[in-house]
Each structure stands twice: as structure tokens, then as C-alpha cells.
Write a structure and sequence with these properties.
Blueprint (H helix, E strand, L loop, with lengths): L3 E13 L2 E13 L4 E5 L6 H8 L7 E6 L2 E2 L5 H10 L1 E4 L11 H11 L4 H14 L15 H13 L5 E5 L7 H16 L3 E6 L2 H5 L3 E6 L2 E7 L25 H14 L1 H38 L5 E6 L14 H17 L11 E4 L1 E3 L6 E7 L2 E6 L2 E4 L9 E4 L6 E5 L1 H6 L7 E8 L2 E13 L9 E4 L1 H10 L8 E5 L3 H12 L4 E2 L2 H45 L1 H9 L4 H42 L8 H27 L3 H6 L2
Parallel strand pairs: 3-8, 3-9, 6-7, 7-8, 16-21, 18-20
Antiparallel strand pairs: 1-2, 1-4, 4-5, 9-10, 11-22, 11-23, 12-22, 13-16, 14-15, 14-19, 17-20, 18-21, 19-20
Helix pairs in contact: 3-4, 3-5, 5-6, 8-16, 9-14, 9-16, 9-17, 14-17, 16-17
Length: 660
């Protein structure tokens, strides 16, 4: 049985205007193992086209090309990839070595595509290169070799998978006469070892050493003669360590390694690309940290003014600008107790809201400045200062809310830290005249300052805290009765308190304390800010994705010939795609890691600056931000790499190899 049978092969190419150029016509040939065949002819005669058909680089033809009785015509890409990997080795005139790989890796790349272990791969490639006299060149790059050395590396790459057929396209075209003789001797040894070697050539010298010369002209076979003077040499066993075992496919780990080699070649470009993505990732982490920090700060401030066992309740006011919140009547308090007890029962709580566990409170916001003020002597002069807000001391406050002093009782009051601005650091113990307009009466009372309360967000306005019963007694003295604006339900357990807070949040008639309302308002604001910042960071990530897409797309164009070489040695579309997707993966991984490092450094700087300027830092890192950063970085990088990877995978191997 012949190794190759070519029957009535016809091949043409479209050239526009529905015309075709006929490259081959009525080709009938057979080739046997052990032959050293020279296919000779002028440029454009069809030599290279015939080699591409035999090599499975082009399967669009008429007729039949039988390789051990298997027809190449009409075969799937998958079958042709397998054929090139297992049966054919290519030796190119321009060597087509991959410039960023070492000599050893250039030869071993075919084994990499077959998922051969690292140890076996190095042993086989090293042994083969040693038999070709290149044992001292393993770590060199192609640009460090002479022409003859490059061609020997190309021959080693063609032999490494122990193919049955070697196709050499002008194997000595770029070599001097002395090197030509060495290369031809190697090719003859390969044929003498029992392989079929077909050389496409212009050279009469190459034809002279061949066992058979096939002449082609204008796409037709015009001569086919055997060289009577050809003498077969002894078997050299040049590839005696090669294995004919079924070859596997490129693994993910091997694809990553090849991708790393490719990226390291253009490390500056790839680093700058990854750096740009890292900046976006770092910005995203900082934006999220800023939003979380604001939320945490507001939550912590609010928690300082809450007691987990106390549930504040206020009526929802129709007039949000009213200086005094809607007051509770006795009937409304009874209705509230009934509603709360029903809700508690429905939620399997034994606790009941009764008069003895309800405390009353009062709040006045003095926006106009005409309802409340304090007067005091300072530097011999009488000073009057408007009170912005007047509170009765809620039961939620405790010692943690005091900056200095004690809680107030009869004829006493507490103020926020703004009082220090008015009276200095010795504010505790001083006496003030308080004037309050309530209903139709005006209350004037002298009080002693007993404590300074931390109100945080209100430290630039004057606020006063007074005992509810004491304030009520002052109102009663004027013939009025103080109506509570706030109620505080004191529970026995946090679970009971949480159930009642749930009741309030589900109600359209009731709301929580002012602190809770402010906390919710600031939380919503910080959430809105966080979303806005995240959107800005997201836009930068989109820009990064476009940048990655552009760079990888350009990379495909720059590496067209490399893609052609990989396909010639058996790389599947899936393998090419895996290599480029792996490059995207590495860009994403590196970008994510660098982005995390940048964010940690920036976080430390921002914390120091905020602490110095504000006394606190509204930033909070979460561990899952780092996982999110890596995940998003990988996602945008790999999505951006899908199109360039698909483009590379679909490239025609013949066209790729022609690209300069």
C-alpha cells in the first residue's frame, strides 16, 4: 500500500469577477515510505499548493488524496488537525520559528499541544536537538542562531512527533552552499530511516540528491523520474526516542504556560495594559470602601443613641416643617398599645405593652429661632443664643453619650458640645436662663448645666436636653399641659424590641426616633453616593475592557504567522482559542492582584488623611471586595479576549503562513 495516493486532483482559486485561477489540474501521483522526493518547477507552477494539500492545510479541492487509504478531501477540521499533529511534519524555507520561544521550546511546542509531561517533553526535545548538533543551543532564542542552525531547529520541530511524512518547502532556499549540504544530508537520513520526505524546490542541487524528481509546470505534472544514482544510506535512527502513542490535546496548564511566554515577550505592553485595568479595579474597591465606611459611620453614630431594649415611636407628621412633632393624645396611645400587643401576639411574643413600660418624650426644632433661647453673662455682657433644638432626655441615652458631667434632673439641663464655643471649657456648673414658647405660654427658667452630650452631627448648633417631668412641671405651672411627641416602649428582650421595630417599619402611621430617621436618611444618601461611585468605577472598567480588546486584537494581527505555524503542527481551533483566552486570564489575574495592592496602599493613605482632617476615616474594606475585584478583573479580561481568540482560531493556516 502506498503512503500517499493522489488521484485526479484539481485545485483553483477565485480571483474576482467570477474568474478562477487554476493552480493544479489532473494531478496523479503516488509516494512510498523511504522516498526522498524533489518537486521542482518555476514560481507559480503549483508546487506549494500541492504541498499544502498533502499537508492537510487546505482541504478544498476536487479529486482524491489518500493517506493510507483515508481521503483528505472533505474531512473535518478536527480530523485534519489530528492528521497534521500525528502524520505530517513541516519544514519551511523561512524557518517560521516562534521568536519569543527558546530553541528547546520551539521544538517542544508540538509536544505541548499533545499534553506530554514536562519531563518527557524536555528529554525528547533535548535528545533530538543533540543528534542534530544543537545541544549547546537549547536556551538560545531564534535570533541568536545562524540560518543553518535555524533550519535544523525547524527540522527537529518537524520530527519531534515522529510523523510518517516530512514536507519541506524550499528547505535550503535561505542557506549558503555549505549549510545546504548539511541540511540535505539530514533530510536524506530522515528518508533513509523510512519516512517519506517531499521537498518543494527550485534547486537542481536538491533534485540531484533526491531518490525521485517530480516536475510540475502550470499546475500539471510534466515529469516524474527516479534517480538511478541514488544510494540509500544506513538507518540513522534520528528519531529513535519518539513515541507513536495516541497524542492528547493541549491542557489548560500548557495553554497558560504558552500564554505566559507570549506575554513575557511583550511584557511592557502587557504590563501597561494590566496596569490600566488595575487602576480601575483599585478605584472600584476604594469607591465601595468609601460607601461602606459612610454607612458604617452613620450606623455607629446612630447606635450610640439607641438602646437595644428601647423602641422609640413617633407619629408621622403631615407637616414635616412643624417645629413640634405631632403630639400624642391619650386615646392615640391606647390605640398604639392595642396595635402593638396584637402584633406581638401574632409573632408569638409573651410581652405586652402597658402604661408602666411606656416613657414619654418631647422634641422641638426651633428653625425660626423665635421659640427657644438661652441667656447668660459673658465678659460682663448679657448674651442670648437661640436654641436650635430642645429635647427631653430619652431613655436610650447612657454614660457613653456623655462627653463630660452627669445627667440632669430638676432645675438642670444638658447641652451639646457647641456650648463649649459659647462658655468655654468650664461650661459645666454655669447657670443659664432658658426661654421657651409652648402653645400659648412662655416659660422662663434658670437651669444649671450638668453635662455635655455628644450629638456628633449637631455639634455646630446649640441643642439642649432636659428631664421630661421637669419640663412638664414648668408647663403646668403656666396653666398648660405638655403633650408628648415621642414615646419610648421599654421591652424585656431584644427580640421583643425587634418585633416592635418591625411593626413600626411596616406602619404608615408611625416612625422611629429622630436619630433613627436621620440614620436612615444618611444611610440612603451614602447608598446613593456608593451607587454613583460604583457606576463611575464601572465606566472605567468598561474602558479597560475596550483597551484589552484592542490590544489583544492587535496581538492577533502581529502573531498571524505564529498562529499558522501552530496550526501546521496540529493545533486545533480550540487550542489556539485556549492560548489567547489564557492570555486574557493572565491579564485579568495580574490586573486584579495589582489592583488590590494599589487599593491597600491608597486605603492607608486616605485613612491617614481623613483621620488628620476629620478625626475619623469614612472608609471600610470588606474581604469580599478583593474577591469581587479578582472576579471582575478576570471577567472583563476574558470577555474582552473572546473575540480576538475566536478570530485567531478561525484563521486559515495557508494564509497565515504567507503573512510577512
Amino acid at each position: 500500500m502506498s503512503e500517499i495516493e493522489i488521484k485526479n486532483v484539481f485545485k483553483s482559486y477565485p480571483v474576482g469577477n467570477k474568474e478562477e485561477f487554476v493552480a493544479l489540474k489532473d494531478i496523479n501521483l503516488t509516494f512510498e515510505k523511504g522516498e526522498l522526493v524533489a518537486v521542482v518547477g518555476e514560481s507559480g507552477s503549483g508546487k506549494s499548493t500541492l504541498m499544502n494539500l498533502i499537508g492537510g492545510l487546505d482541504s478544498q479541492f476536487e479529486g482524491d488524496i489518500l493517506i493510507e487509504s483515508v481521503n483528505l478531501r472533505g474531512q473535518t477540521d478536527k480530523m485534519l488537525d489530528k492528521y497534521r499533529k500525528n502524520k505530517v511534519g513541516f519544514v519551511f524555507q523561512s524557518f517560521n520559528l516562534i521568536p519569543h520561544l527558546s530553541v528547546l521550546d520551539n521544538v517542544a511546542v508540538a509536544l505541548t499541544l499533545s499534553n506530554v509531561s514536562e519531563k518527557e517533553k524536555v528529554e525528547k526535545a533535548s535528545a533530538l536537538l543533540a543528534r542534530l548538533g544543537l545541544e549547546k543551543m537549547l536556551k538560545r532564542k531564534p535570533n541568536q542562531l545562524s540560518g543553518g542552525q535555524k533550519q535544523r531547529v525547524a527540522i527537529a520541530r518537524a520530527l519531534i512527533n515522529d510523523p510518517d511524512i516530512i514536507l519541506a518547502d524550499e528547505p535550503t532556499g535561505a542557506l549558503d552552499s555549505g549549510t545546504t549540504a548539511q541540511i540535505l544530508e539530514i533530510l536524506k537520513e530522515i528518508a533513509d530511516d523510512g519516512k517519506l520526505v517531499i521537498m518543494v524546490t527550485h534547486s537542481e542541487k536538491v533534485a540531484a540528491i533526491s531518490s525521485r524528481v517530480v516536475q510540475i509546470s502550470d499546475g500539471k505534472i510534466v515529469g516524474d523520474r527516479k534517480n538511478e544514482n541514488y544510494q540509500k544510506g544506513e538507518t540513522s535512527e534520528l528519531v529513535k526516542n519518539s513515541s507513536k502513542a495516541e497524542k492528547q490535546h493541549l491542557s489548560f496548564a500548557s495553554a497558560i504556560k504558552l500564554a505566559f511566554h507570549n506575554m513575557w515577550t511583550n511584557k511592557v505592553k502587557n504590563f501597561l495594559m494590566a496596569f490600566g485595568v488595575a487602576i480601575s479595579i483599585s478605584s472600584m474597591i476604594l469607591m465601595l470602601s468609601f460607601g461602606s465606611g459612610l454607612t458604617d459611620y452613620v450606623t455607629n453614630v446612630a447606635s450610640d443613641y439607641t438602646n437595644p431594649l428601647v423602641v422609640p415611636v413617633s407619629k408621622v407628621s403631615e407637616n414635616m416643617m412643624s417645629p413640634v412633632s405631632s403630639a400624642w393624645t391619650d386615646e392615640e396611645i391606647e390605640n398604639l398599645k392595642t396595635e402593638m400587643n396584637t402584633y406581638l401576639s401574632n409573632n408569638n411574643q409573651d410581652f405586652r405593652v402597658e402604661d408602666e413600660n411606656i416613657e414619654r418624650g418631647f422634641t422641638m426644632i426651633n428653625i425660626s429661632g423665635s421659640l427657644a433661647s438661652v441667656s447668660f453673662s459673658k465678659d460682663g455682657e448679657e448674651v442670648t443664643q437661640n436654641l436650635f433644638c430642645l429635647y427631653t432626655t430619652p431613655p436610650t441615652y447612657n454614660e457613653t453619650n456623655l462627653i463630660e458631667g452627669d445627667f440632669s434632673g430638676q432645675s438642670e439641663a444638658m447641652f451639646n458640645s457647641y456650648l463649649y464655643e459659647l462658655l468655654g471649657e468650664e461650661a459645666i456648673g454655669q447657670t443659664l436662663l432658658v426661654t421657651v414658647s409652648y402653645g400659648g405660654v412662655v416659660i422662663e427658667e434658670t437651669v444649671t448645666v450638668t453635662g455635655i452630650v455628644d450629638t456628633s452631627v449637631f455639634d455646630q448648633i446649640l441643642c439642649m436636653y432636659i428631664d421630661y417631668d421637669y419640663l412638664n412641671s414648668l408647663v403646668v405651672e403656666q396653666g398648660e399641659e405638655l403633650q408628648p411627641t415621642d414615646l419610648y416602649v421599654v421591652t424585656d428582650t431584644e427580640q421583643q424590641a425587634n418585633v416592635l421595630k418591625e411593626f413600626i417599619s411596616n406602619s404608615s402611621n408611625y416612625s422611629g426616633s429622630m436619630e433613627e430617621r436621620l440614620a436612615n436618611m444618611f444611610s440612603e444618601m451614602s447608598s446613593t453616593i456608593s451607587i454613583a461611585l460604583a457606576i463611575i468605577a464601572g465606566i472605567s472598567l468598561i474602558v479597560s475592557a475596550i483597551m484589552i480588546l484592542t490590544v489583544l486584537y492587535m496581538s492577533v494581527s502581529e502573531r498571524t504567522k505564529e498562529i499558522g505555524v501552530l496550526k501546521a503542527i496540529g493545533a486545533r481551533r480550540k487550542d489556539i482559542r485556549s492560548i489567547f483566552v489564557s492570555e486574557s486570564f493572565l491579564v485579568g489575574l495580574f490586573s486584579g492582584i495589582v489592583g488590590i495592592i494599589f487599593s491597600l496602599i491608597s486605603y492607608g493613605i486616605f485613612v491617614a488623611v481623613f483621620n488628620a482632617l476629620l478625626g475619623f476615616a469614612p472608609l471600610a474594606l470588606r474581604w469580599f471586595y478583593f474577591a469581587l475585584a479578582i472576579g471582575l478583573s478576570l471577567l472583563i479580561s476574558m470577555l474582552s479576549g473572546l473575540y480576538p481568540a475566536a478570530k485567531a482560531a478561525k484563521m486559515d493556516p495557508v494564509e497565515s503562513l504567507r503573512r510577512e
